[in-house]
Design a protein that fits this description.
alpha+beta, BirA Bifunctional Protein, domain 2, seven-stranded mixed sheet, five-stranded antiparallel sheet, about 20% helix, binds biotin
Amino acid sequence: MFKILYFDSLDSTNKYVKENLSSLSDKTAVVAKKQTNGRGRMGKTWSSCETSLTFSYLVNNIKNPASSAALNAIAVIRAIRRLFDVYLTIKWPNDILLNDKKVCGILCESRHFGDGFALISGIGINLSGKKNFFDSSGLSHATSLPFTEKKREALLFEILKEAEKIIYSDFKDHRREYISNCINIGREIRLIRQSGSERLAMAVSIDENGYLVCKDGDEIFIVNAGEVSVRGINGYA
Ligand code: BTN
């Protein structure tokens, strides 16, 4: 069971958890109605409208934080599918898509804790956002789940319930479920490094650590989530 702290506004729920790590107890979730400086992966910012669900949760005693984002993606997919009748996919490593557009982003950060790690999982889900919000924020690749904010609380509880079940497990035990939901597999992709350099490849699988297995001609290689962003060759996915 999670303890949940609610705020009207924070700069970033991930930042709040990191700054208060020593005083927050294991299994605490921090929800903010509004974030003034939401953070995304690879140093990007995360903008969301006030109807969205933005929260971070803390769990201690995680052995391998490297695959936590992928496990969270499975938890989010399971929770949304249980509550709503929508077909969602995962864009590797942990974007959740509806009709090839992003509805949810996940940012996991960790700190050493005892023999393992404290894991901060930040989850942002677009709920009933208007198209002009995404267009005017330069987020034409994003969309929203078509549910009103009245469902926000139910969604939060369901995600935390699924996360609690899956977050301590080994990615390899959920690899098949991840692959069956991953939109990139079997597609041509662009791998974009932080430097801006790009490489085209075919996404062929996900390995037991959650790394993306790619093929370029005769060469098979793996990439990890910290290294690259992935795009489809003709669009976001
Ligand atoms: C991404 O797709 O780049 C990850 C986005 C993660 C956004 C969430 S919203 C709640 C939590 N607080 C943050 O500042 N970021 C995460």
